């Protein structure tokens, strides 16, 4: 691991009031004239410790300044108990080597109360008279909707009475299993030969979009709208094994590097993302024993 790839962690402020938010930044920097390191970021759940809650994980962004490229992951945190709370080190895997960020300290203070002032009662609630105009204003969408539905029903009844009865049997088409549809879509990506034509980003986007759609339908999770780290956190409670989650993490993070960090992978890595997606679908397919495998 290069010296310039040592991870750092810092808080935008080390003192907050109870309930206020602070931003925790985890960064990995490298020289602009070298290959950007491959980083496997830690999985962060809803809490960092028992005292520090995670409000939002902003995901990984890439910042280029002067002769340095920095990958930044920003996490919004808060706390609801006063005291001094430690932010433990985070473990990252950078180009295959494990490194840790330094530990941090967050001071959480209570809201000051002026005990010299008398306590005031809460003011009485003033009720405004409710008029029929107010009712009509609050409920006109329902009235309009009811009238529209009634008109539609009457129109359908008239149309059905005028229409000659016909008996038509719609053919029942067999529904392909999920894994078969996904494998066919991945085969189509392979036939398009996107990365061989210089469309590397489009190749990785196509593969991971299909894979995310499969994960969403297979495990009933919001895979298409989640960040990579959020999705991996959700899948920890699914039937997906640790090995399968690690395979998925490597595929999605490689695609994130190509799409957002403008990283240029080797030809073998372009082939690996497609082969890895096909392998993961085979491993996680939930079908009867006699269903087709491909």
Helix-strand layout with pairing:
Elements: E1 8-11, E2 15-17, E3 21-31, E4 39-40, E5 52-65, E6 68-79, E7 83-87, E8 91-94, E9 97-100, E10 104-109, H1 132-162, H2 178-192, H3 200-219, H4 228-235, H5 242-260, H6 267-284
Parallel strand pairs: 2-10
Antiparallel strand pairs: 1-3, 3-6, 4-8, 5-6, 7-10, 8-9
Helix pairs in contact: 2-3, 2-6, 3-5, 3-6, 4-5, 5-6
Structure characterization notes:
The chain has 294 residues and is an alpha+beta fold. The chain folds into 2 domains: 3-109, Immunoglobulins (Immunoglobulin-like), CATH 2.60.40; 178-284, no CATH class. The chain is 38% helix and 22% strand. The protein has 6 helices and 10 strands. The protein has a 4-stranded antiparallel beta sheet with strand order 1-3-6-5, with helices on one face. α3 (200-219) runs parallel beside α6 (267-284), α4 (228-235) runs antiparallel to α5 (242-260) and α5 (242-260) packs antiparallel against α6. The longest helix has 31 residues, at 132-162. It is flat, with a radius of gyration of 28 Å. The model is unreliable at 288-294 (pLDDT under 50).
As a percent range, the share of strand residues is 15-25%
- Describe the largest sheet: 4 strands, antiparallel
Q: Assign the CATH architecture of the largest domain.
A: Sandwich
What would CATH call the class of the largest domain?
Mainly Beta
- Judged by helices, strands and strand pairing, the structural class is alpha+beta
What spatial form do the alpha-carbon principal axes imply?
flat
Tell me the domain tally: 2
- What is the multimeric organization of the chains shown? single chain
Strand arrangement within the widest β-sheet reads 1-3-6-5
What is the assigned CATH homologous superfamily of the largest domain?
Immunoglobulins
Would you give the CATH topology of the largest domain? Immunoglobulin-like
Q: Supply the number of helical segments.
A: 6
Overall mean pLDDT score?
85
Instruction: Give the H and E element order.
Output: EEEEEEEEEEHHHHHH
Q: Which segments are poorly predicted (pLDDT under 50) over 5 or more consecutive residues?
A: 288-294
């Amino acid at each position: 691991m290069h010296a310039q790839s040592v991870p750092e962690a810092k808080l935008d402020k080390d003192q907050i009031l109870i309930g206020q938010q602070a931003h925790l930044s985890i960064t990995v920097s490298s020289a602009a004239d070298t290959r950007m390191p491959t980083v496997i970021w830690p999985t962060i759940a809803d809490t960092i410790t028992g005292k520090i809650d995670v409000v939002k994980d902003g995901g990984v962004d890439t910042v280029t300044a002067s002769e340095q490229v920095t990958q930044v992951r920003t996490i919004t945190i808060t706390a609801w108990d006063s005291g001094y709370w430690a932010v433990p080190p985070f473990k990252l895997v950078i180009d295959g080597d494990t490194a840790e960020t330094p530990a941090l300290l967050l001071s959480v203070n209570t809201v000051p109360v002026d005990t010299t002032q008398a306590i005031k009662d809460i003011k009485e609630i003033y009720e405004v008279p409710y008029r029929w105009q107010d009712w009509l204003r609050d409920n006109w969408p329902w009235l309009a909707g009811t009238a529209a539905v009634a008109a539609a029903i009457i129109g359908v009844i008239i149309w059905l009475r005028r229409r000659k009865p016909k008996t038509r049997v719609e053919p029942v088409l067999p529904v392909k299993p999920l894994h078969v549809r996904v494998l066919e879509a991945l085969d189509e990506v392979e036939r398009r030969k996107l990365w061989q034509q210089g469309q590397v980003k489009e190749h990785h986007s196509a593969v991971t979009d299909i894979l995310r759609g499969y994960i969403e339908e297979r495990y009933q999770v919001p895979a298409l709208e989640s960040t990579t780290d959020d999705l991996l956190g959700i899948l920890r409670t699914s039937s997906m094994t640790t090995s399968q989650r690690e395979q998925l993490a490597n595929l999605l993070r490689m695609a994130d590097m190509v799409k957002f960090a403008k990283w240029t992978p080797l030809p073998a890595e372009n082939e690996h993302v497609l082969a890895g997606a096909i392998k993961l679908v085979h491993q996680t397919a939930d079908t009867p024993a006699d269903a087709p495998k491909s």
